[in-house]
């Protein structure tokens, strides 16, 4: 038996009483069943069939005031069964059909907000791509308990601390399986020098170029606090030592340096995130492959102009990063 049906309140007593000719409990049963239907967290097939069977049978037998109350409650609910709609319309109480989404973004938001919707891999990828720039959609997806933490890596910046830890742990499990050769020490040296001179733009450019990040990579974090969290992941991926990262936190930005609590949280994030996990989190958050240079000209790893690496090249430090592994789903 479906869990939704097994956990439903037992209305057998009311139904038995409704057979008493001296009592007319049909309006009460219909209103109670309507409230139970609307409050159900998931409108699965069992819930829909049970409500349609009972409500469609009671609607022709109850008074108009009860029908008005029921119709007002159901109006706007997208999951009202067709049989219930038809029964109400026959009695002169039609309810509006669900409004068609005005845009793909609105349709995606409605899908994410529907707890009964099954979200397959391809649909989830589309929702995650949109959620990178849609804070409301990001919060909705993060609140869905059935989505594995590893799949939520692109939304790490929008996650609460506890959920961030769960995502990081899930990413850690697979990040270490891929090679992560050390970055050239010259990159760390340049970053420390730019931070010491408070040349923020040169610092951001050097860090982005060193990791092969897109020019506007910090734009992935609209919130200034989250932007520094993203920067911390990049510093960890760039293979800075902890002392060098602390120096950056204390010199690059005065507002950060003046907050002991903020510096401590950034150091903790740097210390508790492995370099491989930081690399993969960056990859997921930005939606692009995060590339590290081992020196020489930057060569893109994707596209027709890409040079295919050989095992010998891999030995010298070139490698390909991929998104954190995802649990296989059915669409």
Would you give an account of this structure?
There is one protein chain. The chain is mainly α and 331 residues long. It has 3 domains: 3-90; 100-147, no CATH class; 185-316, no CATH class. The chain is 56% helix and 0% strand. It has helices spanning 3-6, 12-18, 26-39, 45-58, 64-74, 82-90, 104-113, 121-131, 135-142, 161-175, 185-196, 200-211, 224-237, 242-251, 254-257, 260-272, 275-286, 311-316. Helix 3 runs antiparallel to helix 4, helix 4 packs parallel to helix 6 (82-90) and helix 8 packs across helix 9. The longest helix has 15 residues, at 161-175. The chain is elongated and about 85 Å long. The model is unreliable at 1-8 and 292-331 (pLDDT under 50).
